[in-house]
Amino acid sequence: MTMLRLAHLARLAGCAGVLALCSGSAVGQNTPAQGNAPAARAPVGSAGEAAAAVGGRAPGDPPESFSIMPVTQNVDVSDAQRLNADSNLNDWLLHGRTFDNQRFSPLTQINASNVKKLRPSAIIQTGITKSFENTPIVVDGVMYTETGDNNVQAWDAVTGKQLWAYAPKLGFSNLCCGQQSRGVGVGYGKVFVAQLDGHVVALDARTGKVLWKTEHKDTLPEPYHFYSFTMAPQVYNGMVLVGNAGAEWPTRGFVEALDERTGKVIWRFNTTAAPDEPGGDTWSGDSWKFGGSSVWNTPAIDPKNDLIIFATGNPNPDLDGQTRKGDNAYTDSIVAIHGKTGKLAWWNQQVPHDVWDYDACAPVVLFDTVDETGKVVPAAAEMGKVGWGFIVNRLTGKLIRKTEPFVTIFPNQFRIPDQTPTVYVPGNKGGAMWSPPAYSPITKNLYTMGINEAHIFTVRPLPEIYKPGTPIVGQYSGGSMATDLKTFPPNGTFSAIDMTTGKITWQYKSPRPMYGGVLATGSNLIFTGEMTGDFSAFDAKTGKILWQYNLGAGVCTPPITYRVKGKQYIAVGASGCHGGEILMQNDGRPVFGDVMAIFALPE
Q1: 196-235: per-residue pLDDT in tens?
Q2: What backbone phi and psi angles, to 5 degrees, belong to 375?
Q3: Who has greater pLDDT, 117 or 471?
Q4: Domains of the chain, first to last
Q5: Cα-Cα-Cα-Cα dihedral of 137, 143, 147, 153, to 10°?
């Protein structure tokens, strides 16, 4: 939504950007730092700084926030509410609904016997025609969404009427992979936004007004323009957790905790190991200072053991690893840190010395499973770009089992790339990407999206390690990873995988790569979307499609479910699929859309 359109919407009454329907179709990452940060940093986000940040806009610029209708609901969301999110059947309070990132809802009103009656009750048109990877947050009937370029909007979660909007004027940042944003965090009467320009912002949950905004000098290493955020913040125990996304620049990845009241840094954990840290001997020379290892997605949290668990991205530079000899801890890993201190608990590396861009970029999911002895243990799982999933003991990090491959894997998968163009499958957009899976405690299956897409890797040897203050062009590219449309047409999989055995229970095959996310419900329904525009409900046990609705544009946004006044709703975005623009265009489909669809059973 442009600034002008937002200003126009602010003048409209009531039903801004909404098309109410009973039936029919609607068409509608970067890294941080040099060296370790101290345990605490200078205060940031005072009222004076917030005023200066807002007041610093150019004369004539429209305001960042527009209040359209009053929010009268209780949208404060306390720590206790988040800890007990599983027993709250009305709201979707966290990125993964609960801290374990399972994306499982106990709701059963929509079930196998009536799902065929499901139809849109409202179609929200955000006005921003651009792919968005947002998971909505719903609090007491208010839905908070984030579209491209960090435009945040609040809606009535039943009627789709717009309540307020925030349209930031972003500063410059080097972006690797588009203006992606995966959602907001909500707590303490605030909406927290981790922005593409490296700022973190707290908005008033009732009005959208800016309450505080971090300053780069207090929260980011230099040079600031290499740093950006795409993940949805996690709100936990008075902290706002954020991590950088995209390891394409000479940076040092991190997860940091900000004070929810001020934005002040409480602690920072760096995701490349320094020489005096565990794993520090896995980097040659000073390569750890610029080693990448971004954090694409929202961490899972084990409150009982005060563990924050997340996955990390590839080392930098890609393809050519000569300047960073060693395994390169903690890249391509599942990592656990202690919530109070941000100190390392353990890490489990999936791909040592990655030269294939095989990030661990899907969200970590927590559940209990049986280990190799048959004992029930607390576990964590991450579905990898490499094409299979990793299940570890979440107290120790020890690998319990790998899953069966859920995508096609060529025999040369781990051949070291060189200057000869070579086809790799999975490629750098293969296996499981950023899309959040879902886990059902009923079936013990984890439901994950998959991508079969070939890429051609060609190395351009790097002359030396990056030198700070010099141009990165020619020093830090490592090579090219071109999409290959000739070896086979890119396609996708949707798999149910038994976490007690690692074996595939059933698998659906899509004509195009599958991005977006998954929702599991207590009525044994699984919801997900496709690049084709189809939004579908599957039988959780058999994989049979029970219902399907085409939204015109690619459905590559995670679905959620919630309840208002006793009625269950399903919401999902249809805005196209970043990474699939050429494929959708070749198929004659809209490349992008601007829809958030709300579904319900008829009265």
Answers
A1: 999 999 999 999 999 999 999 999 988 888 889 999 999 9
A2: -80, 140
A3: 117
A4: 3-600 (2.140.10.10)
A5: -130
Position 100, amino acid: D
The Cα-based distances of 240 to 190, 194, 231, 334 in angstroms read: 11, 10, 12, 20
Distance between CA atoms of residues 231 and 243, nearest Å: 7
Residue pair 489/462 in contact by the 8 Å Cβ criterion: no
Question: Token pair 């991590």 is at which residue?
Answer: 243
pLDDT in tens, 367-384: 999 999 999 999 999 999
**pLDDT score, position 59:** 66
- What residues form DSSP beta bridges with 71? none
Tokens of 129: 């025609």
Q: Where are the beta strands (DSSP E) in 111-221?
A: 119-125, 137-139, 142-146, 152-156, 162-166, 185-187, 190-194, 200-204, 210-213
Confidence class for position 42, pLDDT limits 50, 70, 90: very low
Tell me how far apart the alpha carbons of residues 545 and 528 are, in angstroms, rounded to a whole number: 11
Q: Which two tokens stand for residue 479?
A: 């090579």
Residues making up the chain, counted from first to last: 603
Closest-CA residue to 180 (of 230, 245, 139, 223): 230
Continuous segment of H or E residues that includes residue 509: strand 504-510
pTM for the full model? 0.90
- The helices-and-strands tally (H runs, E runs) of the chain is 5, 38
